[in-house]
From TrEMBL:
Biological classification of the source: Eukaryota, Metazoa, Chordata, Craniata, Vertebrata
Name of the protein: Suppressor APC domain containing 2
Pfam family, one: Suppressor_APC
Keywords tagged on the record: Coiled coil
Annotated region described as Disordered, given as residue ranges: 35-58, 83-104
Coiled-coil ranges per UniProt: 118-152
Segments of skewed composition (Pro residues): 91-104
Domain of life: Eukaryota
Amino acid sequence: MAELEQEKEVLLQGLQMMARGRDWYQQQLQRVQERQRRLGQSRASTDFGAEGSPRPLGRLLPKVQEVARFLGELLAAACAGTAVPSSSLGPPGPTLAPTSPPAPDWQQQTILMLKEQNRLLTQEVTDKSERITQLEQEKSALIKQLFEARALSQQDTGPLDSTFI
């Protein structure tokens, strides 16, 4: 009976964490969608995303991917009625049954996730390159204006005025 209570408690805790995790994932998705919307509206802006960070998830992204992989393995094992692969649980320990090779579903999910991440990073690099090009053009225009203003100033005041560039 105590074993069933413990199992129930673990499942309730897991369910609570899943609910909190779901809320967090939805918040992150909203931030990304908002960032995409802002970038779509104004490619020329200097907007770097929410909270001033170029990548809101930043160093958390590998952990998020790891959690998704672990959850995928857990669900695959639960659906197949086998134990979770020991490689997912950390140090090797005794298993209830011999484990089969990892399920192709979670591998496919990982591949799709990596492809999407690659697409987003490629888009980000493209956006940054376009922004750099725009800034270089603005810089050239400003330098040209500076030289024109300097030339006009020298005509008015004579050769004694020298602006150091």
